Each structure stands twice: as C-alpha cells, then as structure tokens.
Amino acid sequence: MLLAIIDAPIMLALLLVFVPFALLPVWFLWKALDRAGLAGPLALLWFVPLGGIVVLGVLAFADWPVLQRSQT
Q1: Spatial distance between the Cα atoms of 29 and 26, rounded to a whole number of angstroms
Q2: Residue 29 and residue 41: Cα distance in Å, rounded?
Q3: b/e sequence 38-69, b meaning 16+ C-beta within 10 Å
Q4: pLDDT at 3 over 70
Q5: Is the pLDDT at 9 greater than 90, yes or no?
Q6: Number of Cβ within a 10 Å radius of residue 33
C-alpha cells in the first residue's frame, strides 16, 4: 500500500512529461499533411504500430494537391 502511494506522484509526473512528447510528432505530421493538401487525420496512424512508416510513405510518394493547384 505504501509503495502505491509513493509511486502515484512519480507516475503522474511521468505522464505529464511523456504525453506531450508522444503527441508532438502527431501534431507535426498533421500540420505537414494539411500543408501538402492531404488529410490531416492520417497523422493519427502514428499511434498504430508501423503506422508512422505508412504516413511518411504517403507524405513522400503521394501527389500533393497543393502543388497541382499551384501549377494550374
């Protein structure tokens, strides 16, 4: 019981530190996908195993609608 009382503040501190760092790449990807003219919610795949590789592949190899609009 005492160990659980001691560990609770430590776990809370870890959550307050690690959660923002886990959300940061998703926010960056969301903004990059939006600016490329692609769907921003694809960035949520970052939380799925191997989903980050899929998102980066889409970002790298997809035709960006923003570039197509600027060329016409």
Answers
A1: 5
A2: 9
A3: bebebbebbeeeeebeebeeebeeeeeeeeee
A4: no
A5: no
A6: 20
Residue 8, pLDDT score? 79
| pLDDT per position as a tens digit, 27-67 | 999 999 999 889 999 999 999 999 989 999 988 998 888 87
The pair of structure tokens assigned to 5 is 């009382």
Euclidean distance between CA atoms 46 and 27, whole angstroms: 10
Nearest to 52 by CA among 72, 28, 17: 28
Q: Kindly state the tokens that stand for 7.
A: 């560990």
Place of tokens 């939380």: 47
